[in-house]
Amino acid sequence: MHTMFPTPTRLQRAILYLAATRPGSWFLSRILARFDRAWLRLTGGRRTLTTAMTGLPVVQLTTRGVKSGRPRVCPLIMLPDGNRLIVFASNFGSQRHPAWYLNLRANPNVNVEHNGASAPYRARPAGEAERARYWRQAVAMYPGYRVYERRAGGRRIPIIVLEPLREHSGMVLR
């Protein structure tokens, strides 16, 4: 597990194991993500059910829709790296990229909310050396990413580095 985060409990480890299965992925992507959005609204962006259930850090990423231009909010597991945040376009091992990734490719300026604080970021793909390091850290944090990588077939899972557009305070990563 990434050293910045507490070791998951026995129950959280079991949930992480289940999350990597096809039924678990379906549940997380279709059901839990919706509850997470509602729970985030109710807690002012400070808590997610995914974090409570798995111990994984989750942020809300707001992108602009490619076609509509409207804001699109998606809860994502993140890995902190200094003032940067790293997210993984795994799409639960689907052979297609997630919509949020396509949105940020078209417009890399995004907003991130975590622990009730919100800040603007700019997205960029991880370079090859960064990618290798971040992937190792991601798999250590959540071994299900390896399963997603196999399930994605020939699709290389994009790793995105979110860099703050300006120095901001209040964004405490835990």
How would you sum up this structure, described in words?
Strand 2 (71-81) and strand 3 (84-88) form a beta hairpin. Helices cover 39% and strands 25% of the residues. The protein contains six helices and six strands. It is α+β, with helices and mostly antiparallel strands and 174 residues long. The protein has a six-stranded antiparallel β-barrel with strand order 1-2-3-6-5-4. It starts with 9 loop residues before the first helix and ends in a 10-residue tail after the last strand. The model has no long low-confidence stretch (mean pLDDT 84).
In brief, what are we looking at here?
By secondary structure, the protein is of the alpha+beta class.
Q: Which consecutive residue ranges, at least 5 long each, have pLDDT under 50?
A: none
Label the structural class.
alpha+beta
| Overall radius of gyration | 15 Å
Helix content: 25-40%
Span between termini: 14 Å
Strand order of the largest sheet: 1-2-3-6-5-4
Q: Helical element count?
A: 6
The general outline is: globular
